[in-house]
Specification:
This protein is of the alpha/beta class. The protein is built from 21 helices and 27 strands. It binds 5'-O-[(L-methionyl)-sulphamoyl]adenosine.
């Protein structure tokens, strides 16, 4: 039963501390493709996305940018909204956590839990990671966050607690009864192991800053940002509203069918969220589906690493569908996938311009030329050949398999199967040579020509219908060129061979995927550089520094993030808590020009080994180095060419400032700084070195 059945799908709501990049676009595109397919199948689909705007991280980012949190959130949230419009994302709603409807709903949820006795007050003293907005059950002050590697901060405050610990057994029973709840399977195992290792109560309010939703009846506290954010999935469809229509909407759409998320936020969605819903007596989402990361230059694309690519860049040069197709086809869903401009252009040219583009353009052009733009009648008998039936059979097999693969989130394999049909039909056209058949006289040749072109056009129609959720713009155009009108109105349930109306008139035939020329890659790279240099919102305004390394494995919920209250007396605020981790807020410099130890600790100095060293073209002083710092190999540009020949550096240990904001020099990105003394009147650089042997990655303190 599909038609009319509701289908509610959500993306995570995006933090507004940074402009969107294609990592965010990826989650949104995946959900959009799923939502479009469901609509084509007749589901009453509700697709939600939005922005997560509260919390200490955003407050600090705003301060660093010289704005109020609201101004800051308004600006960045609108960038997300504009981008999604430009990307033609078919979301039904865009929720902002600063909207009254959300605040009301989140407070309502909090109140429900409180009234049911699942919330109590206690004191928390421990570590907090502002970047992940996560309570960390790690060692003492300054210990790194096990999720992202950034230094944690000590917090000590009176908080409200959610009795998460009483839900461990219920959660385990639930996972057992609903094996489809966490997907893929490997993630489910991680989640179950995490819960089995024991749950502690979760602090769900903060009182040391103001940027958040006030706790009902205790406005000195704001609701913990993850409790606030997770509740969006309910508040967007009406939870907490007094309006009857909104209440009905909630009854209708809740629970969500799919929460699509990145693997790093599984614990919040698969442990905290279901426990909160259980406590509130609300139905649980049917599934939480985790995808992998989009990597660029071999690490997770993220603003703090400075290795981001904007969706706009790809869209400007190759169009929306190029980005969508690449992400859905190239990335094996669930796993991490690399992004590169080279691979993007290659995929675009081979699969879209060559395969689909060519099939559409030559099939349709020949129908215009030889049949005056009217779909020809295929011969059922005389002019029929086994090759025609083979196409039909393959098309039927693709129809049968595509949906199943797609619905199992195997987008890459689903598209691969559709493209294998395209490949077969292109080969068929080459073998059948309709252009030669067209030159032959007689009824039979004419019938043969009609059969070939009908077969190709019908296969094209089938691929177009199947691929529509993945590449909606171009398939919409091809559908019109096939003379079929509005593709989104097509009922995908009915898709079968031989539905192309015989004698139907084609629309205007135009190329859909112009080939990308050699300059496309350069243009995109250039645009990225210009955007990085010119966009103020793009500059690092986050409260967090680049991570210490790539070592942490988000998505493996090994850290206990929930904290029970302690009996310890709260430490005086500001005396125990170290200063914010590498915040963009300037370090407090005292009158005598000294900085505190905490400020010094923000600088992450590490030992690295030079793996590659070479001159930078057109820059006398610069060398491009690739430095292994234990957790990753970094590209660093160093102004030491006057003192060191590149070949003398390879294999040498150096000291690198590992948590500097990346910057571009001569078009190359520098990710860190090599520490050197500046000697003599000419300021000759002298590299820091050690008398003893030191391991790669060692930290300097
Ligand atoms: N605000 C929280 C989510 C709250 S949901 C109740 C958050 N926001 S985020 O902006 O940091 O990330 C949101 C999502 O963006 C991630 O879960 C992931 O889906 C996506 N991605 C961000 N960077 C990404 C990549 N480099 N690759 C793939 N997806 C990425 O977490």
């Amino acid at each position: 039963m599909a038609k009319g059945q509701k289908f509610y799908i959500t993306t995570p709501i995006y933090y507004v501390n940074a402009r969107p990049h294609i990592g965010h676009a990826y989650t949104t595109i995946v959900c959009d493709a799923i939502a479009r397919r469901k609509r084509m199948l007749g589901f009453d689909t509700y697709f939600l996305t939005g922005t997560d705007e509260h919390g200490q991280k955003i407050e600090r980012s705003a301060t660093a940018a010289g704005k109020t949190p609201k101004q800051f959130a308004d600006e960045v949230s609108s960038l997300f909204r504009q981008l999604f419009e430009r990307m033609n994302i078919s979301n039904n709603d865009f929720i902002r956590t600063t909207e009254p409807r959300h605040q009301r709903g989140a407070q309502e949820l909090f109140r429900r839990l409180k009234d049911k006795g699942f919330i109590y007050k206690g004191t928390y003293t421990g570590q907090y990671c502002v970047y992940d907005e996560l309570y960390v059950d790690a060692a003492g002050p300054g210990a790194p966050c096990p999720e992202c590697g950034r230094p944690t901060e000590t917090v000590s405050e009176e908080n409200y607690y959610f009795k998460l610990s009483s839900f461990a057994d219920k959660l385990l029973d639930f996972y057992k009864e609903h094996p489809e709840f966490v997907r893929p399977e490997t993630r489910r195992n991680e989640v179950m192991a995490f819960v089995r290792s024991g749950l502690r109560d979760l602090s769900i309010s903060r009182s040391t800053f103001k940027w958040g939703i006030p706790v009902p009846r205790d406005p000195g506290h704001v609701i913990y940002v993850w409790f606030d954010a997770l509740s969006n999935y309910c508040t967007a469809v009406g939870l907490g509203s007094k309006d009857e229509a909104e209440q009905k909407k909630f009854e209708h759409y809740w629970p969500a069918d799919v929460h699509m998320i990145g693997k790093e936020i599984i614990r919040f969605h698969c442990v905290y969220w279901p426990a909160i819903l259980m406590a509130a007596d609300l139905p649980l989402p049917l599934s939480v589906v985790a995808h992998g990361w989009l990597l660029f230059e071999e690490s997770k694309m993220s603003k703090s690493r400075g290795n981001i690519v904007r969706a706009e860049t790809v869209i400007d040069v190759l169009g929306n569908d190029a980005l969508r197709y690449f992400l859905l086809r190239e990335v094996v869903f669930g796993q991490d996938g690399g992004f590169s401009f080279d691979a993007l252009v290659q995929r675009y040219n081979s699969d879209l311009a060559n395969d689909l583009g060519n099939l559409a353009s030559r099939t349709l052009t020949m129908i215009v030329r030889y049949f005056n733009g009217t779909v020809p009648y295929p011969s059922p008998t005389v002019a029929r050949m086994p090759a025609d039936d083979k196409i039909k059979e393959q098309a039927q097999a693709v129809i049968a398999g595509f949906g199943q693969l797609f619905d199992e989130y195997q987008f890459s394999r689903a598209l691969e199967s559709a493209w294998s049909l395209i490949g077969t039909v292109n080969k068929y056209l080459v073998e059948q040579e309709p252009w030669i058949v067209s030159e032959k006289e007689g009824e039979e040749s004419r019938a043969r020509l009609a059969t070939i072109l009908y077969t190709a056009a019908e296969a094209l129609r089938i691929v177009t219908a199947l691929a529509h959720p993945a590449i909606p713009e171009s398939t919409g155009k091809i559908w019109k060129q096939l003379g079929l009108g509005e593709i989104s109105k097509f009922d995908l349930n009915d898709l079968k061979w031989a539905q192309l109306p015989l004698g139907g008139k084609l629309g205007k035939v135009e190329p859909v995927f112009p080939r990308a020329d050699k300059t496309a890659i350069e243009r995109m790279q250039q645009m990225e550089q210009e955007r990085t240099a010119s966009t103020p919102a793009n500059k690092e305004t986050s409260a967090s520094a680049p991570p210490a390394g790539e070592g942490a494995q988000p998505g493996q919920p090994a850290t206990q993030a929930a904290h029970g209250p302690t009996e310890a007396a709260p430490a005086a605020r500001g005396t125990v808590a170290p200063a914010p981790a590498a915040t963009a807020t300037p370090a407090a410099i005292t009158k005598d020009g000294k900085i505190s130890i905490d400020d010094f600790l923000k600088v992450e100095l590490r030992v690295g080994e030079v793996k590659v060293a070479e001159k930078v073209k057109g820059a006398d002083k610069l060398l491009r180095l690739e430095v292994d710092i234990g957790t990753e190999v970094r590209q660093v540009l160093a102004g030491i060419a006057s003192a060191y020949a590149p070949e003398t550096l390879v294999g040498r240990k150096v000291v690198i400032v590992a948590n500097l904001q990346p910057r571009k020099l001569r078009g190359l990105e520098s990710n860190g700084m090599i520490v050197a003394a500046s000697a003599g009147p000419e300021d000759k650089p002298v590299l820091v070195s050690f008398l003893e042997d030191v391991p790669i990655g060692a930290k300097l303190k």
